[in-house]
Design goal:
This protein is about 30% helix and about 30% strand. With about 300 residues, it is an alpha/beta fold. The protein has 2 domains: about 210 residues, 3-Layer(aba) Sandwich (Rossmann fold); about 55 residues, Alpha-Beta Plaits (2-Layer Sandwich). The strands form 3 sheets. Strands 5-6-7-3-8-9 form a 6-stranded mixed sheet, sandwiched between helices. A 4-stranded antiparallel sheet has the order 11-12-10-13. Strands 2-1-4 form a 3-stranded antiparallel sheet, with helices on one face. Strand 1 and strand 2 form a beta hairpin. Helix 7 packs across helix 10. The relative contact order is 0.15. The C terminus is likely disordered.
Length: about 300
């Protein structure tokens, strides 16, 4: 039985479409990574699942019922993109206050130890750094021992070490029984956490599978080489993306073998050629850029051709 589901869900804001005919289910016991550029519809999708917004058409269910019914949100934990904590309350007081709304709550000391908050429990929230506030906000999502947790950009503002510490805490909470949906701009975060990846673009689901399957589905490779004619190599057939890094040309290509044949046939003078499989980041960019190109060629005036940044 799915723990949450979207069935042909569309959410419009006037003529603007934030979520466009999305159908997907979330099974218990998994960590789902929700990816997409700004305006892809990720945050709107989460707000629909929380019952904060209603779909224009289609059906959203959580724990078998309407997400807007408070009874169906009792086993839901969330961390929004924006962190808002009462400046004058101590961290421990905030955890106690939020935990008091749940029949089966995690003890404050246990939660603080899990998320590395022991040293700030007696500090006022207003005195915390941005990264510390973010860790408190993520910890609060787990205080009620939820079955489903929605984390919208949970590690924004954290340094690399703090992100990895938080990833470990999220993994432990998942192992304890929580189903987690996480959005992130850090693609290594999704690779580190998620068992399933949903890639969104222009309000639609572009891919829904394991990390390995999403990368394999796109079928792109990364080619690195040194060459004087950078513009010429970027114009070769099959190049999806071109960047420069420390004097090296970095290209994402559809077919590495075909690209190398075209490169040799061009007669260009190149060296230091290296080819490897794509990362999730390269697959993600290939998927979203292909979707953006398709949307750019859609008929003017169609519902999906008028959009704004509704993430």
């Amino acid at each position: 039985m799915t723990i949450a589901e979207f069935v042909h869900v569309t959410r419009r804001y006037g003529d603007l479409v934030a979520v466009d005919d999305v159908t997907l289910g979330i099974d218990p016991g998994v960590i789902v990574g929700l990816l997409g550029p700004n305006g892809a519809g990720k945050t709107t999708l989460l707000s629909l699942l929380q019952g904060l917004r209603r779909p224009t058409s289609g059906r959203v269910k959580m724990f078998g019922g309407d997400p807007s019914d408070p009874r169906n949100r009792r086993l839901l934990g969330t961390t929004p993109q924006e962190t808002a904590l009462p400046d004058t309350l101590r961290v421990g007081e905030v955890i106690d206050y939020v935990g008091g709304h749940f029949a089966d709550r995690a003890p404050t000391a246990e939660l603080a130890a899990e998320f590395g908050l022991d040293e700030v429990l007696r500090r006022q929230c207003g005195s915390l750094s941005g990264g510390q506030k973010r860790r408190v906000a993520v910890a609060l999502a787990f205080v009620g021992r939820p079955r489903l947790v929605l984390l919208d950009e949970p590690t924004t503002g954290l340094d690399v070490d703090a992100r990895r510490t938080l990833w470990a805490a999220i993994r432990r909470q998942h192992e304890a029984g929580a189903t987690v949906v996480v959005t992130s701009h850090y693609l290594e975060e999704i690779e580190a956490l998620a068992q399933r990846v949903v890639v969104m673009g222009e309000g639609r689901v572009l891919a829904d599978d394991t990390v390995a399957s999403v990368v394999g589905r796109v079928g792109v490779s990364r080619v690195e080489l040194t060459i004087d004619d950078a513009d010429g190599v970027a114009a070769l057939p099959g190049v999806v993306r071109h960047q420069q890094a420390d004097g090296i040309e970095v290209l994402t290509v559809r077919d590495a073998d075909a690209f190398i044949r075209a490169l040799v046939q061009s007669g260009a003078d190149f060296r230091d050629l290296a080819v490897r499989g794509a990362t999730l980041e390269e697959a993600f960019l290939a998927l979203t850029e292909a979707a953006g190109s398709a949307m750019a060629h859609s008929a003017p005036g169609s519902p999906t051709s008028s959009r704004k940044d509704l993430s």
